[in-house]
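It is worth pausing here to work through a concrete case rather than discussing structure prediction in the abstract. The textbook approach is simple: state the sequence, then state the predicted structure, then interpret. We follow exactly that order.
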Amino acid sequence: MALRQPDNETIVITGVGLAAPNGDSLPEYRQSLLEGRSGVSDYEIRYFGPTLAGICHFDPLRYQKRKEVRRGTRAGSVGIYCAREAVADAGLDWESIDKSTVGVYVGVTEHGNVETENEIYEIKAFDYDTKYWSHHHNPRTVANNPAGEITLNLGITGPHYTLGAACAAGNAGLIQGAQMLRLRECDLAICGGVSESIHTFGIFAGFSSQGALARHENPVKASRPFDADRTGIVVAEGGCLFVLQRYADARARGAKIYGQLLGHAMNSDATDFVLPNPQRQAECIHLALRRAQLNPEQVDIVSTHATGTTTGDVQEVAALRAVFDGGGHTHFNNTKSFIGHAMGAAGSLELAGNLPAMDDGVCHPTINLDRPDPECELPGLVANQPREVGRVDCILNNSFGMLGINSVVVIGRV
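Step two, the predicted structure:
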């Protein structure tokens, strides 16, 4: 079965903007993945104390004024940086574009916890007198904030909203952008996911109480999916937004095209708050491949979701074995081993890290895989060193989240 050729309505990626713990542009990020550079470091947050995190180092003042940064949110700053970078990468003449034809669709895991925790901490000094509560709190914490801050910064007057999809949100944002383009609700979509999770102590406390927070004396060794010595999740911040267009529009302006959206799927486990269901994950992968009109053996690279938890990694491997049945020539990798779990941004960052493989024919590795867990054995799992795999035509990107939300995206060469 041949890879489907694009028609005028095919959705394609023409721009990528990102902020990751180990890179603030796709070239820098990709180089880090190929050279084994982790973005995890020591971190401390009030009420919780010393821990580890994936911390971004982009300059928010590149696209915002100091007052705008103070008034807005960290998620908003991440989103604005990524959106501006994506627009620039797409080669768009932004000033001449009708901003009412642009839509913004941003996936998030959670939003507003950081701002609420900060406000409560601040008014403690005033005996919790709410007259000292910031009048910026409500616009900071509304669910549409990250996408809304992007529209304010870029002057976009088309539709915008965020999608709460737990750790499947990065894929969900991209899927929503594609769907809105197909419906002709917009002519250009800025979409993906963002996360400010490391700035809320609650998320560290929550994972710690579950026994799911990674520990290691060497921060860069802490995130170790599929390894027998994995201890849990490293929380990370970050973002990645894509510019999506219909193929006819991208071709008409001579745009660089990273790939076409061949298929996608989302479903629900309907079984547990936290524990994943490998049967439902496998069903989601099968559905995405069926919509892409592909067989599993036609997938060159699978970007795994695995977070480094004891149970979650095993469950995903069970799903992958059920679909790929030995793997064939398919290669599997994991990006969280480099940057930690960027929550709402995880899916989009992980997809972005693999997109350049269509140009260079290299599958970036899973690092920290020193003692592979037999229960996580996958033929084709690329460990510790990048692997030259030849021509890459198809990438499948897994993202799964709490309350049993699953998302899969399939990207193909044009």
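Step three, interpretation. The chain has a mean pLDDT of 97. The chain is about 30% helix and 20% strand.
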